[in-house]
From TrEMBL:
GO biological process: transmembrane transport
Annotated InterPro entries: MetI-like, MetI-like_sf
Record's subcellular location: Cell inner membrane; Cell membrane
Gene Ontology CC entries for this record: plasma membrane
Protein's UniProt name: Iron ABC transporter permease
Segments for region (Disordered): 582-607
UniProt topology in membrane: Multi-pass membrane protein
Length: 607
């Protein structure tokens, strides 16, 4: 770090403009709304008041929701790890027949989640679901509400949040040095002892990390509890949505959101402290690639195969049934009886032929595309400034830009609603609450930390000599950025844009607070279709929505994963025979700072 870097910043007009806009954005949309939320909760009349705390303690519903949230988070920390570690081992560590097929089934959570996943399970196993009605046709005494409450929420979220294991834990497993396993086997260690004493301890850093992520996901879960929890199991997030709808209980909603935010900050602080201690997190260079291990015990091998394929059915069944039901008349789904005459293309004709039905899908696509392009386009300049000029000012700005990573989305949304419901001088005296703009602002905010981290890494991978050469040739800073730097980070920027677009398509957490009634996004439309028997006519339309979303998300994952994986293999093969890849570093914008990292970091479960 150079002491003169601050002075160098002030000599660049482009940097000055970027810094001014950045400071305004941080003050207006990151700091002021959250501070205003705290003030309105604890200082409603200009003086400190504990009224919100008293209301929380005296509210049985609110206290029960707190207990349910922590119970769900603790339970998922166990169940998700059990299932997640198992599916990683059977697809990446043990020799299991059909492992590639199993991986495809387990990876279905990559292409659907959030409100789409919760609604899918509800339409299959819920009160009016196909499986429930089919079973009740044979055994009428079966409770139609069997798939609801704590059991249903835990089951759905357990299989929805193993995405982190599929991505992160699989990557860590591949880095284990196979020579250590061979050495242990030569010393007489059994397969299970090697797994328990060598493999799992080596995975401990990532297991700890995904456990924290799982706990946070369970603590702030909204869509699964609100769709499947029923009246007896509601968590903090659904209660915040309920209380925020009334001005008399909005302070209670704010306090619950603050509690959720504090819990998130504490857990992330603990995670960072453990990481800095060096006890769990380490990086080792792999000398020998890991080879899959055979299960020597025949009985154990059979049991592992059976459990693996049972899980495959649980993972793949919702996706296959949703695709099937999108071509079936809704009456057949509701009665639990499907015949050849039940199949039709009317559902797709209705969606694509009726503007009012297609409108939520188009609205979500527009919102997601605008947010994805704006956040990447804006942060291209910001990340470059932060990466190039290291001083207390840029460090402070970088920390502030990570605020959306430590606060739950519902807290950010509620703060925006409560702040911009009156004229605000920071935005020229405008009122944003109730407009179509505020949801776009929220989408941009929640994607800032992820986008910033990876764009900064992409710029860091570019050699300084390229910019120095351009400067020596007389190129201005803006010209250098446009002609030299920008083309090198395009692959990473494109991948980030695709993943941001992907993750916002079916958003519900922010939309439920901020959407405009005339521009209803897809998440709200899908949630409405799960509410009671009166909305069952929209079930088939929701199936079509879900299929379209899975196609888009699957295509995005292919563009980010498949193409980058293929290019990586080609580079590896070329380097083996002595090509350029063996002679120098990987191209900027790939590998550690490129699409592989983007794809891994961008796959957060949405439940």
């Amino acid at each position: 770090m150079r002491n003169s870097s601050l002075g160098a910043m002030l000599r660049s007009p482009l940097v000055i403009v970027v810094s001014v806009v950045l400071v305004w954005f941080i003050a207006t949309f990151l700091l002021f709304p959250n501070i205003n939320l705290l003030v309105s909760t604890f200082f409603p009349g200009g003086e400190f008041s504990a009224r919100a705390v008293e209301k929380l303690v005296s509210s049985e519903r609110a206290m029960k929701s707190l207990w349910h949230s922590f119970l769900l988070a603790i339970t998922l920390s166990v169940t998700v790890n059990v299932v997640g570690i198992f599916i990683v081992l059977v697809t990446k560590y043990f020799q299991i027949r059909g492992a590639r097929v199993l991986w495809l089934g387990y990876a279905t959570t990559l292409i659907y989640g959030g409100i789409v996943l919760a609604a899918g399970y509800n339409f299959i196993y819920g009160r009016y679901g196909f499986i429930t009605n089919a079973v009740r046709n044979v055994w009428p005494e079966v409770d139609p509400n069997w798939f609801s409450g704590f059991f249903a929420v835990v089951l759905v979220m357990t299989f929805a949040t193993t995405t982190n294991h599929m991505l992160f834990l699989s990557s860590s497993l591949a880095k284990i040095d196979y020579q250590t396993i061979e050495a242990a086997r030569n010393m007489g260690a059994s397969t299970w002892r090697i797994l328990w004493k060598i493999v799992l301890p080596a995975l401990r850093p990532m297991i700890f990390a995904v456990t924290v992520l799982t706990f946070l996901t369970g603590l702030g879960a909204l869509t699964a509890p609100i769709v499947l929890g029923g009246p007896d199991f509601q968590t903090i997030a659904p209660m915040i949505v309920t209380f925020s709808k009334s001005t008399s209980s909005r302070d209670l909603a704010a306090l619950l959101a603050i509690i959720l935010g504090v819990a998130t900050i504490i857990l992330l602080a603990v995670m960072n402290r453990v990481e800095k201690s060096g006890v769990y997190f380490s990086v080792a260079k792999v000398a020998t690639p890991l080879q899959k291990q055979r299960i020597p015990n025949r009985a154990a091998n059979v049991i592992v195969h059976i459990v693996a394929y049972i899980l495959f059915v649980i993972y793949a069944a919702p996706v296959l049934l949703i695709v099937l039901f999108s071509f079936v008349d809704s009456t057949a789904v509701l009665t639990g009886s499907i015949t050849l005459s039940s199949f039709t293309l009317d559902n797709y004709a209705t969606v694509f032929g009726t503007p009012a039905v297609l409108r939520p899908f188009v609205v979500s696509v527009v919102y997601s595309a605008l947010a994805a392009f704006i956040v990447v386009g804006g942060l291209l300049f910001v990340s470059r400034v932060i990466q190039k000029y290291r001083n207390p000012v840029t460090s402070t700005l970088e920390y502030l830009l990570h605020i959306p990573w430590i606060l739950p989305t519902i807290l950010i949304a509620l703060a925006l609603v409560m702040t911009f419901d009156r004229p605000n001088p920071l935005i020229g005296g405008q009122v944003l609450t109730g407009t179509a703009v505020l949801l776009l602002v929220a989408y941009i905010i929640v994607k800032i930390p992820f986008t910033l981290r990876l764009l900064k890494a992409a710029f860091a991978s570019i050699p300084d000599s390229l910019e120095d050469a351009a400067r020596i040739l007389g190129a201005k800073s803006l010209f250098t950025f446009r002609k030299v730097l920008f083309p090198l980070v395009i692959p990473t920027a494109a991948a980030i844009t695709a993943l941001n677009f992907n993750s916002l398509l079916d958003d519900y957490d922010a939309a439920v607070f901020l959407y405009h009634p005339l521009y209803e996004p897809l998440g709200i439309a899908i949630k409405a279709s799960t509410e009671g028997e009166n909305n069952l006519d929209s079930m088939s339309i929701t199936f079509v929505y879900t299929v379209l979303l899975m196609i888009i998300m699957g295509l995005t994952m292919y563009l980010v994963y498949g193409r980058s994986a293929g290019s990586k293999k080609r580079r590896t093969r070329f380097s083996v025979i002595g090509g350029p890849a063996a002679a120098g570093p990987a191209a900027p914008g790939t590998d550690a700072a490129g699409t592989d990292a983007v794809a891994t970091a961008g796959a957060n479960p949405r439940t």
